[in-house]
């Protein structure tokens, strides 16, 4: 029946119907893609989505902080984003006495909003700079090409943004270096914290529920962007005024149904949908498992200290959350890649490509070359993971690795007392910041265990010469030598010793630096890498770039009919994805509904639990069924979250989910476990985006937070 219907549709329409896969560049939707959006329900004109001259949805979408998306929801610069995107700013604004992270916060009026270190970026325009970039690169390959492209990128971005700190220009590579676009942003630096629900709501379910559906997390927080009086980007100033945006999103409280059109605008960070079978194998064999076990270890030591002391919790919370987020991601990614045999799927695609490429000199050896390239790098892949996730996973070692730059300056020929003085002032400031975030207890255990795991896991011939002999010498027979060694490092480094540090800062010498035991650890492992494996990694990455560029070029040549409906991999540039509200079947005989409700949330409630506790007021409101005007008619309950078939990835966090008319219906905040292989392969049946329902957001603001004035600022569509 289904099939019949499908062929009928095809017969009467020239339109191709796509799966919901695709992260489209809003400026370049193309006729076919736009027509498909309309067919699936979109009620807006192309220029309402993206326009150079007129206000459009793109003007309400921002880069929030370093790696998230946010949206403007009022004519006074009000921003909605995820709780996990505001997390660091919320923790920073909190203290044990005013614990906004734990208790929530709502600024009673604009004067009570709290300044942050955050910036937000508005996209001003996009330009195709392919000709310039490809001309600059010419026929070069490898390192020469990397250098030529970097030089041209610098020229282009300097022309546009120069030294203007309120402009940001980025040249983004599309289709693995076959196309280049320039993105120009306005950078706003006065961003204030307006409000958040308590963490028990904003991160309800914690890491247990992270990357999973069903899901009951109220993952939102609220900020405001300020501008100078004349509406220009500005640094923080009391004189600044709430920014008047070109466009802001109206908010729909009408609710959603299964099958409704849903569109997401935002900044997906990275995908690699044309990853090779060799890349998949390296990931599942070495990269992911190594990262996961090292993070597992670090998280365990951090959590133990966080649970003991609220001050430590505030200190480590944000760092902990980001380590935990991708710990679970990479673990799940491997499991799904293996479960769906993505390796086998890729091999099939590669075999088809190689068959097509036979006799075409540009293309026929691509996969043989890939194989050689991976074989050359693979023996060192573990070292790289252990360095980044283990040795430098110790915050102390990561911090003292910054002293390598200090040493370099001390050794420079233009050594002059003034310059050195300035350098040491900066170094002293950096030390202060390190100490503010440092928890020695967990860090010392991390270092001991990271060293032990390195020595057991990385081939002995790759160990820094003599290093582990020294460690063993530090231990007595009946004690763990790694623990004893780490204890000595923590005891003797000047990183923790004000007197030693001050003496060094007053009279810095290369010798004094190199005699520091923490510095010696960082230096040994980094030197070993830089001298022996970094050049191999650079050659590996550059060869992959060359091969990838040719592979994509070949794919387009092989499938000319598909070129207009191909989308480039995510690269943290603005994309739009469209699909629908949709339930799914995670496994045989199990069907997942498309919404979660307060009833389901209460069923997970565990009083006093680290991840599943709830505020007393929340429980009271629930018991009184005090839903205000936000109840869902069909469920006779508050809908907390819903899922859609949209194609998104990390970086999209905080992205607006829009209905057919461009009204806000939710905020995207996660992907589902069954599709954690999505960076390398989109699964049209299982891929879902998890969104917090905007009606729940408003309920939390008004009923739980008592901040009706925020709701009053919005333009509600009823
Ligand atoms: N998985 C979410 C994302 O990457 C972040 C969730 C943060 N919550 C957490 N429990 N770590 O968008």
Primary descriptors:
718 residues, alpha+beta, Thrombin, subunit H, 4 domains, 11-stranded antiparallel β-sheet, 27 helices, 22 strands, binds arginine
Q: What is the approximate shape?
A: globular
The CATH class label of the largest domain is Mainly Beta
* Through-space gap between termini: 37 Å
Low-confidence stretches: 1-16
Strand residue percentage: 15-25%
Put the structure in a nutshell.
The protein has 718 residues and is of the alpha+beta class. The protein is built from 27 helices and 22 strands.
Descriptive overview:
- It is a single chain.
- This protein is of the alpha+beta class and 718 residues long.
- It folds into four domains: 2-119 and 189-266 and 574-717, Thrombin, subunit H (Beta Barrel), CATH 2.40.10.120; 121-188 and 536-565, no CATH class; 276-393, no CATH class; 402-532, no CATH class.
- 47% of the residues lie in helices and 15% in strands.
- The protein has 27 helices and 22 strands.
- The strands form four sheets. Strands 1, 2, 3, 4, 5, 6, 7, 8, 9, 10 and 11 form an eleven-stranded antiparallel sheet that branches. It has a seven-stranded antiparallel sheet with strand order 14-13-19-20-21-18-17. Strands 12-22 form a two-stranded parallel sheet.
- A hairpin with a 5-residue loop joins strand 2 and strand 3.
- The longest helix is centred in the last third of the chain and has 42 residues, at 517-558.
- The radius of gyration is 27 Å and the shape is globular.
- Bound molecules: arginine.
């Amino acid at each position: 029946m289904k099939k019949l219907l499908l062929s009928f549709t095809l017969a009467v329409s020239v339109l191709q119907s796509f799966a919901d896969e695709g992260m489209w560049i809003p400026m370049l939707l193309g006729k076919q893609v736009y027509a498909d959006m309309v067919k699936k329900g979109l009620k807006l004109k192309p220029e309402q989505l993206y326009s150079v001259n007129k206000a459009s949805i793109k003007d309400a979408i921002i880069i929030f902080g370093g790696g998230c998306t946010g949206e403007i929801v009022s004519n006074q610069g009000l921003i909605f984003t995820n709780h996990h995107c505001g997390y660091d700013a919320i923790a920073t604004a909190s203290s044990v006495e005013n614990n906004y992270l734990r208790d929530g916060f709502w600024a009673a009026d604009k004067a009570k909003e709290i300044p942050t270190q955050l910036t937000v970026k508005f996209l001003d325009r996009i330009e195709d700079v392919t000709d310039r970039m490809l001309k600059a690169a010419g026929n070069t390959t490898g390192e020469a090409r990397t250098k030529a492209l970097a030089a041209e990128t610098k020229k282009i971005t300097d022309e546009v943004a120069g030294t203007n700190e309120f402009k940001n220009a980025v040249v983004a590579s599309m289709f693995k270096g076959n196309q280049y676009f320039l993105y120009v942003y306005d950078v706003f630096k006065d961003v204030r914290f307006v409000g958040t629900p308590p963490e028990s709501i904003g991160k309800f379910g914690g890491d247990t529920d992270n990357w999973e559906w069903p899901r009951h997390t109220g993952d939102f927080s609220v900020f405001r962007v300020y501008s100078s009086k004349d509406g220009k980007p500005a640094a923080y100033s009391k004189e600044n005024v709430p920014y008047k945006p070109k466009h802001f999103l109206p908010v729909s409280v009408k609710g959603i149904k299964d099958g409704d059109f849903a569109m997401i605008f935002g900044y997906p960070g990275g995908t690699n949908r044309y990853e090779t079978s060799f890349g998949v194998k390296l990931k599942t064999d070495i990269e992911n498992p190594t990262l996961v076990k090292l993070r597992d270890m670090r998280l365990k030591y951090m959590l133990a200290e966080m649970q003991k002391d609220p001050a430590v919790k505030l200190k480590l919370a944000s760092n902990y959350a980001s380590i935990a987020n991708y710990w679970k991601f990479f673990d799940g990614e491997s499991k799904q890649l293996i479960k769906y045999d993505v390796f086998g799927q890729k091999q099939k695609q590669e075999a088809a490509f190689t068959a097509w490429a036979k006799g075409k000199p540009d293309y026929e050896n691509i996969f043989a070359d890939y194989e050689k390239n991976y074989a050359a790098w693979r023996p060192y892949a573990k070292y790289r993971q252990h360095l980044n996730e283990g040795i430098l996973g110790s915050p102390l070692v990561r911090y003292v690795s910054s002293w390598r730059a200090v040493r370099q300056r001390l050794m420079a020929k233009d050594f002059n007392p003034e310059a050195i003085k300035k350098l040491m002032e900066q170094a002293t400031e950096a030390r202060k910041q390190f100490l503010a975030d440092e928890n020695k207890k967990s860090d010392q255990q991390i270092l001991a265990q990271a060293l032990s795991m390195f020595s057991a896991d990385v081939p002995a011939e790759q160990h820094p010469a003599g290093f582990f002999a020294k460690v063993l010498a530090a231990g007595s027979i009946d004690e763990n030598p790694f623990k004893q060694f780490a204890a000595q490092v923590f005891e003797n480094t000047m990183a923790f010793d004000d007197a030693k540090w001050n003496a060094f800062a007053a009279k810095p010498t290369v010798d004094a630096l190199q005699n520091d035991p923490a510095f010696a650890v960082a230096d040994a492992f980094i030197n070993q890498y830089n001298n022996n494996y970094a050049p191999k990694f650079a050659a590996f990455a550059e060869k992959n770039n060359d091969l990838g560029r040719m592979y994509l070029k070949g794919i387009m040549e092989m499938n000319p009919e598909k070129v207009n409906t191909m989308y480039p991999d995510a690269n943290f540039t603005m994309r739009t994805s469209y699909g629908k509200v949709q339930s799914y079947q995670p496994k045989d005989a199990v069907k997942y509904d498309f919404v979660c409700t307060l009833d389901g949330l209460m069923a997970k409630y565990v009083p006093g639990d680290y991840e599943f506790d709830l505020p007393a007021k929340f429980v009271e409101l629930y018991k009184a069924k005090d839903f205000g005007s936000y109840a869902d008619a069909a469920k006779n309950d508050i809908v907390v979250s819903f899922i859609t078939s949209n194609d998104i990835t990390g970086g999209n966090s905080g992205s607006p989910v829009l209905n057919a008319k461009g009204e806000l219906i939710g905020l995207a905040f996660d992907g589902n476990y069954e599709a954690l292989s999505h960076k390398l392969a989109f699964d049209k049946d299982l891929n879902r985006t998890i969104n917090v329902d905007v009606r729940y957001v408003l309920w939390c603001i008004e009923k739980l937070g008592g901040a009706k004035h925020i709701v009053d600022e919005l333009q509600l569509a009823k």
